[in-house]
Fold this protein.
Amino acid sequence: MGSIPRARRSDTRERIQQTALQLFLSRGYANTSLREIAEELGVTKAALYYHFKTKEDILAELSQQLGEPVDALIAWASGQPPTPETKRELLRRYSAAVRDAAPIYRILQENQATLRDLDIGEQLRQRVRAVSRLMSTGDGPLDVQVHYASALLTVHFGTFGLDEVAGEAEEKRAALLKVAMEILDAADRTPAG
């Protein structure tokens, strides 16, 4: 009997991750066990262990995959001048990245006590801090810096804060980005010094 083809193994890992993600979101990270993930998939716990030893391993891989666009954004923005145009583009790109990574950020937000001591939580916090630093770099009066921070907070926390507001996810994302850009417009109108 030959080894499992790479594509099939990859498909299985993807199914495990997606199932675990849905359970983490619906039941909470702490309230989801590997046994429940295996049951939901219709596989044995041993089959699940073949791919992931712990639920932290599943969440870590999900976090890494969903965090890659944010990491790429941070790398891009780090090489750009801290101009208002760069900050606008940073917000546009961050809006798209956070849309895709929202489930991981939501899990972190809703399970702070449980995830506080795990590397995953710290990695996500570092990404958010890095984006925040990039938004606040450059010269400018304090009120302009507050505008930059407020624009980022609008995009980041608005992603989770509008769950109860009627509308499609993409419509909400566009509205958040529009408001964030209006905040940046206000920063541009702030007199220097």
